Amino acid sequence: MLAFTVRNRRLVSQKSLLPKLRPGWALIRVRLAGICNTDVEILRGYHDFRGTPGHEFVGQVAEVNGVSAATKKKWLGRRVCGEINVSCSAYGCKPVCEFCRRGLKTHCARRTVLGIVAHDGAFAEYLTLPLDNLHVVPGNVSDEQAVFVEPLAAACEILDQVNLKNFRSAAVLGDGKLAQLIARVLKTALPRVVMYGKHDRKLGLARRAGIQTKKVRGDASELWRITEKFRLVVEATGSPTGLALAQHITEARGTLVLKSTFHGRAAVETWPIVVKEVTVIGSRCGPFANAIGLLRSCKIDPTPLITRKFALAEAPTAIRFAQRPDVMKVLLSS
To answer: How distant, in Å, are the alpha carbons of 51, 83, 243, 254, 271 from that of 248?
Structure first.
């Protein structure tokens, strides 16, 4: 199969054998893969990853190993997306780790992560995942919608972490792909969501989804220019500079949700968190079922965020294109 691996901070193509399947695992032919900011950060050294990146995908089950005939029939040919954290139980570890015993498989002490930590990902013609990680894509959800399930689930995680009944409005810092999905998810539960971003075209996409927008420069001057404060703020800029503004606009006793992942350090002053008694929540992966439900019910349609689709063979060109300031979601088709 054709796959792309990270080598010297570049994507390099290679032909390789199909991956072998563990019992209870599926071989999935990738139909579409999405390029995420995390993939860009991997090329900059994030997690020191050396395999095949890519964790946003929709695919079709091509083979299943070590299961009953009935289970095999249930899965073969099904269109699926997949949760990216593979817990120790999927590798046959006994006993399983403390996090898995507590039901926190996304924090499994021995987990691998599709396309991010020790598990080859979706920038390839095929990938493997345990059946327990797979979710069937409903018939009324297109491939172009389904490829957003993983980041949309990450946006839905906020709804599980924060009781939105305590809030009337929220601010989302950032106008990129994840920030756009977060704002849309919050808009399903809150009457007012305000997106702060730097790019006119991206802010326009948010406005067309009913989200209020405010343009910012993204530098230190914002700390005295922006006067409105919010009880709920989500930082999703993907940049270390976003945290200072997020702290600034979070009101006293407010809640600040951190979504950005990037390679390197952020210069942070913690005194505003202490003085204002801000609750800070780290937020990562989320519930796939909730994300699929939003797509099935047509409450959210992420396809306007797609800028361009490339063939898998063009992956190096695609990931360079994805880093342009005016570009949103870039897809790879195999």
So the answer is: 39, 34, 9, 11, 11
What does the H/E/C string look like for 246-265? HHHHEEEEEEEEECCCCCCC
R_g (Cα) of the chain, nearest Å: 20
Taking 50 as the pLDDT cut, the residues of the chain under it are none
CA neighbor of 181 nearest in space, from 301, 65, 67: 301
Helix (H) / strand (E) element for 225: namely helix 222-225
Three-class secondary structure of residue 67 per DSSP = coil
Paired tokens of 170 = 């929220």
Which tens digit of pLDDT belongs to each residue from 262-295? 766 777 788 889 999 999 999 999 999 999 999 9
Largest CA distance in the chain: 65
What's the CA gap between 236 and 300, in Å, rounded?
Answer: 19
How many Cβ atoms from other residues are within 10 Å of residue 283's Cβ? Answer: 19
Positive/negative CA dihedral, 270, 276, 277, 280: negative
